[in-house]
Specification:
alpha/beta, 2 domains, 7-stranded mixed beta sheet, 4-stranded antiparallel beta sheet
């Protein structure tokens, strides 16, 4: 199998992740609840995950990292804090995943929020100046996909924040965390939503939200927290305020190990490896004249290792099916839960086939994928 669907979920996981999950499963796991030794060990495991994420992504205050089952819940949690009212405006890019787009659409319907979209320009990139132009007196938040799961385009997050000034920036780093060097995120983003099972190399069921001090928070659920048990009110201090119920200690053990792997290798080295794969694949696609790459003009320095394309004469679903059947190459066809992005790129509703490389792919696999595309391209032309 050549696994090129790391944008959906990364595979394989580093051996340390499997070992850490197994080790966590071999012990009782009730962090912050019971007073016995294994409960303390479980609490340490959760702390390790927080500490590693803080080190990799640049979160200065670890208690402001709340764990969630994935980035989708983290984004909903972030939005819930704002108590939006009718007439409030939220800016997003037109490259958002449905995990941002659907909550925003719902807010327009249930709270009367006005949703302003910033489209990518001809070069396939969103530009900070366009966020500046979209600001109105009623703008309360900007929600931005840091790296598109369709085109791989990286949004200039720091410049966007400069354009926004005091307006908070919620960054969805689902596709950039673990791929880009993001050690200073906390210096410009205001809310950072991450998922554990993609570039961070952890298990599914892990993710979280970091929230800058001073920003409003409101839980999506209340209940047991292991703290202030005498009270029927859920605690109001972080992270307990946003972490009702027993955490996914087994998953977080794996996430801590996944982030350890990246920290040990070095985020810059991971990025360099992914850029090499990207360059190899894009270069080899030069020999596939019937391929149309979405956002072909986006320079490698402004992309994560994700390339979506169509091949003349092929539907995206047929092409992905043949890549798997004949070549053992796993990709993802269709709209990638990002209909807005496909509309913006002119590939709605057919979508495209996405090749998303990860930390364990080799340049040989990228070449193999391009060769398969060349052969399938000739079949229909
Ligand atoms: C940019 C982006 N945001 C959000 C998500 C949702 O991730 P999860 O399903 O882990 O919540 C994805 C993953 O598909 C994504 O690529």
């Amino acid at each position: 199998m050549i696994y090129l669907d790391n944008g959906a979920t990364s595979f394989p996981k580093p051996p340390g992740v499997l070992e850490a999950v197994l080790a966590a499963l071999s012990q009782p796991a009730s962090p912050g609840r019971s007073g016995h030794r294994p409960a303390h060990e479980a609490a340490k495991t959760v702390y390790r995950a927080r500490r590693n994420l803080g080190a990799l992504l640049g979160f200065p205050n670890l208690e402001r990292v709340a764990f969630t089952p994935n980035v989708t819940v983290a984004i909903n949690l972030a939005l819930n804090g704002f108590r939006f009212r009718a007439g409030d405006r939220i800016i997003s890019s037109a490259l958002e995943h449905n995990s941002v787009a659907r909550p925003l659409k719902l807010l327009t319907e249930t709270a009367g929020v006005i949703w302003d979209l910033v489209y990518p320009r001809e070069d396939g990139l969103v530009h900070a100046a366009d966020f500046g132009k979209a600001i109105r007196p009623e703008t309360r938040l900007a929600a931005v996909c840091h790296a598109s799961n369709v085109t791989g385009a990286i949004a200039p997050a720091r410049e966007i924040k400069e354009a926004l000034g005091d307006i908070p920036l919620l960054l969805d780093v689902a596709q950039s965390a673990g791929s880009l060097s993001l050690g200073d995120l906390g210096s410009y983003a205001d809310l950072v939503a991450f998922t554990g099972h993609k570039g961070l190399l952890g298990p599914t069921g892990t993710g979280g939200l970091w929230i800058r001090e001073g920003l409003p928070t409101r839980p999506l659920a209340v209940g047991g927290s292991g703290s202030r048990s005498e009270s029927l009110e859920h605690p109001d201090f972080l992270p307990d305020a946003l972490e009702a119920g027993t955490l996914n200690v087994h998953g977080l053990a794996g996430l801590a190990a996944g982030v350890d792997f990246i920290l040990e290798k070095g985020a810059a080295a991971v990025r360099a490896g992914e850029m090499e794969l990207l360059a190899t694949f894009l270069d080899a696609l030069g020999a596939v004249p019937t391929a149309t790459v979405l956002g072909r003009a986006i320079p490698i320095a402004k992309r994560v290792a994700t390339v979506s394309l169509n091949l003349r004469g092929w539907s995206s679903s047929d092409l992905a099916a043949r890549l798997e059947k004949d070549y053992g190459i796993m990709t993802r066809a269709g709209l990638h839960c990002a209909p807005l992005a496909h509309r913006a790129m002119g590939t709605f509703p057919g979508g495209a086939v996405r090749f998303s490389f990860g930390a364990f792919n080799s340049p040989g696999e990228a070449l193999e994928a391009a060769r398969a595309l060349a052969a399938l391209g000739k079949e229909k032309n």
